[in-house]
Here is the input.
Amino acid sequence: MNILDIIAKKRDNENLTKEEIEYFVNGYTNNEITDYQAAAFIMAVFINGMTKEETTNLTLSMARSGEILDLSTLSQTIVDKHSTGGVGDKVSLILLPIVSSLGVLVAKMSGRGLGFTGGTIDKLESIPGYKTNISIEQFVENVKNIGISLISQTLNLAPADKKLYSLRDTISCVESIPLIASSIMSKKIASGAQKIVLDVTVGKGAFMNNIAQARELANTMIEIGKLANRQTICILTNMDEPLGYNVGNSLEVIEAVNFLKGDMPEDLKQVVLNIGSYMLKLAGKGDNLEENKKKMLENIKNGKAYEKFKQLIENQGGEISFIENVENIPKAKFIEPIYSLKSGYIHQINALEIGKIACSLGAGRIKKEDSIDYQAGIVLQKKVADFVEKGEILAYIHTNKIEKLENAKNNILNNIKIEKEKIEIPKTILEIIE
Ligand code: URA
Here is the structure.
């Protein structure tokens, strides 16, 4: 077997065997296959696709490319969640303490943001002191002690995915169903998840731009889950506009804390409650989804979810005073309002463009090595379907780079569409596939 024949086979749209896929994954992980050969292979997959069988074999090979975490010493089924990515997506920060406060064990490894999408780890690291990089023993110990731990995926888990994801990002090959499905499911399998709830985002700020593609991605991941004996449920959610109001790392932590204290933007609330109700069900904490949502709301109201969030932050070294008093979280030097140029109803807030603008202000990485400005970002004041008066504030820009202000301001104005006609509030939960 050799890599040239494998590349040629995929280039010519032929199906690969399990052994050929394993040869590629192992060879690339061990640096025996070069980046340019892997790039050619990945581009061939991007263009010609993969069968379900090939995608499953790719997933399992990637999962086995490093350690597979054994969480069987924990006393419960581990239910994990993952999102296919979005703008303003602070769901994990909110949802996981809520379900933990209801007795679900949370042992979660999250990723960093890349490009226009944010990552939970960057958001957590915006809290001074919070350690995302702890040993596996400490991680398991934390889950045993307080029921929740959130860390970065620094362990030797699915190393093939780490290499392939970075490579895909540099050769415009992210938006591919077999590649996204294998990337997500290999990480979930390697990180010890026994049951999985996936937030499959759809729209302008997501990798899947329409519902048909999202359905196909969801069905592919569910199928892989079945073959790997991991029950998987997919919730398709709207990512045409940013989720909630705040985009940018510490700005999203502030919105998460406010949510846990009862200030809940409707779209964010829908995503949190729907994913959470399924997590509770899969963890054996209640079969009735509506009852589960009520329990989650109850633990927000009685402060238990917020207390669990504080306990998580404190237990991993974070400075709790910043959480107890979000006004003390350091802000960017320049906070600039953007005024509406006309009156009317908001028809569109383009999530992709808002994500890119936030990134240009310093909130995200253009390249993997870039450092992040935790304070940078955008705070929207309106959502789609809201009415705005001419001269009213549409959003605030937060940045430490004054030279970026003018451009960001014009770009934001160009990406919020205002029309005379009223429109319906868009649906947030588009479909649930079990
Ligand atoms: N999230 C992942 O973990 N992998 C992808 O390929 C896309 C989104």
Notes: The mean pLDDT is 93. The domain at 3-49 is CATH 1.20.970.10 (Transferase, Pyrimidine Nucleoside Phosphorylase; Chain A, domain 3).
